Amino acid sequence: MRRTTGSVDGAKTLAAGKHGATATRLRGKGASVTLDFGLEVGGHVTITLGPGTDPGQALGLTYSELSTYISTTSSDGSNGGTNDEPPVTYTALPGGRIDTATSNPTGGTGATQNPASQLRGGFRYLTLVNQGDGTVEITGVSVDLAFAPNTADLRAYPNYFSCDDDLLTRIWYAGAYTVQTNIVATHQGRVWGPPELGWDNSARIGELGDTVLVDGAKRDRTVWPGDLGISGLTDYVSLGDTVTMRNSLQTLYNHQAESGALPYAGPAVNFIGNSDAYHLWTLIGTAEYVEFSGDLTWARKISGGFRRALDHITAKIDDDGLLNVTASSDWARRDSDGKNLEANAIMYRALLACAGLATALDDRATAAACTEKATALKAAVEDAGYWDAAKGLYRDKPASTLYPQDANALALWFGLVDDAERARTISEALVRRWTRTGALSPEKTDTSVHPFPGSMEVHAHFAAGRARTA
Q1: Cα separations (Å) of 13 from 16, 18, 37, 107?
Q2: What is the C-alpha separation between 450 and 463, in angstroms, rounded?
Q3: Is 3-145 CATH 2.60.120.260?
Q4: DSSP strand pairing (211-213 vs 263-265)
Q5: Are 238 and 176 in contact (CB under 8 A)?
Q6: Contact at 8 Å (CB) between 362 and 427?
Q7: Protein fold of 166-463
Q8: Residues 261, 309: contact at Cβ < 8 Å?
Q9: pLDDT surpassing 80 at residue 17
Q10: Residue 67 has what pLDDT?
Q11: Pairing with 284, which of 98, 347, 369, 395 sits 20 to 30 Å away (CA)?
């Protein structure tokens, strides 16, 4: 139990999990109890009510991932639009039961006739608040975890990690668990466009198999290819799961444009053709999935779409050997058009990945062409003026004063940097920008810290041979 407001009896016994043994009573409007589940959970909530509940009462539910946003009047934002999320209210009957999977809400959402919409993808804190003037008696609260439905036992990791540094071991398992929270059923994604009131997680977001890998348990709940570049690797290394990655990729290919452009985001968002960077991440993910799974049958099935996607993006490589980004949507970085280095680093990795996939499919001509383009791009980056020896970092563009975290990290991770001394120089320069909050992402704002490019930086320090720094 995290806290109570108003007149509350027996809150601690409810938090102790003593269902039915004693009751928690919320007396009067605004009386509330906030439960702390101790870690990120997600799914549908079931509440059992005692006979001491007065007739004609209503109970409201609010959710939060952080204690900062615990509230009796709103949940932390998850719908991606208005984020107007007042308490979702339900009729509270004496001796009754509220199950958010089957009980119709009476307020706080525009989807009152669709209980499945009220699946809450990610939260740690659940607040139950009395919406009436009488007493609501609660005898039990539980959450039916909805994530990783392809796993019978979330603790039975097929792969594992242990070392003499307890913090590092905990970080590894935190990453594995985070990915588990992002493996969701194909029919439990976020509806788009977002509702004006509340949220709706009943959208179809996958079109093959039972699960897909989304970018966030709570909010987007959509397949975003850029995020697959990080989470797909984690899913494989920790869970040995390649099927979810295949399902996610196939869904993206299902929505490929006639031009060959792949989605910036999958259904139900369906942003198609407006991101060269995320287009490339799908190509990388495709090659990595085939490498990890050995699934050449699927690779041959999507080879036509892969080829069209490859032709679409390589047509944007100019005579100087560099990719010129014309579809500039990205992870929210600025200056993401033109010949920015982040996109060119991704292009370089994609070309090498394509060469590997083509070799696996015995397509020697494509493998040779991709390798040749990658070699030319690498040389072009070296000649174009991105490198600033005085700063020890790459510029975003040859004439730019921006030294981005993502581009420098990807240059190391994806192998644009061969020289060990330069690799160390970049790694050290990135470290000098660390703050108490984390590693700076100046390509967003001068003070921002973001986990997506931050994860790239972790890979970069490893690539530079500086594991302790990572």
Answers
A1: 5, 6, 14, 29
A2: 20
A3: yes
A4: unpaired
A5: yes
A6: no
A7: Glycosyltransferase (1.50.10)
A8: yes
A9: no
A10: 97
A11: 395
Looking at residue 14, what is its pLDDT?
81
DSSP 382-397: HHTT-EETTTTEE-SS
Report the residue count for the chain: 470
For residue 323, list its beta bridge partners. Answer: 317
pLDDT tens digits along 338-351: 999 999 999 999 99
How crowded is the C-beta side of 351, counted as CA atoms within 13 Å? 26
- 3-state class percentages of the chain: helix first, strand second, coil last, to nearest 5: 35, 20, 45
CB hemisphere CA count around 32 (13 angstroms): 22
Question: Residue 13: pLDDT band by 50, 70, 90 thresholds?
Answer: confident
With the C-alpha atoms ordered 105, 109, 112, 114, is the resulting torsion angle positive or negative?
negative
What is the overall mean pLDDT for the chain? 96
Task: Tell me the C-alpha distance between 297 and 41, whole Å.
Answer: 36
C-alpha distance from residue 457 to each of 3, 99, 449 (Å)? 38, 43, 12
Which residues, in sequence order, are CB contacts of 86 under 8 Å at separation 6+?
60, 62, 73, 74, 107, 108, 197, 198
Please state, as a whole number, how many other Cβ atoms lie within 10 Å of the Cβ of residue 188. Answer: 25
3-class DSSP state for residue 170? helix
The structure's pTM equals: 0.95
The 10s digit of each residue's pLDDT in 351-408 is 999 999 999 999 999 999 999 999 999 999 999 999 999 999 999 999 999 999 999 9
- Specify the pLDDT at position 16: 67
Q: Does 18 have pLDDT greater than 90? A: no
The pLDDT of residue 21 is above 80 = no
d(CA 148, CA 155): 11
The answer to whether 328 and 273 have CB atoms below 8 angstroms apart is no
Give the per-residue pLDDT at 12.
85
Give the residue extent of every domain in the chain.
3-145, 166-463
Q: Which residue is listed with tokens 């120089």?
A: 425
Helix, strand, or coil (residue 103): coil
255 and 272 in contact (C-beta within 8 Å)?
yes
- Identify whether the C-beta of residue 267 lies closer than 8 Å to the C-beta of residue 221: no
* Residues in contact with 223: Cβ distance below 8 Å, sequence separation at least 6, in sequence order: 205, 206, 212, 213, 214, 215, 248, 251, 252, 265, 266, 267
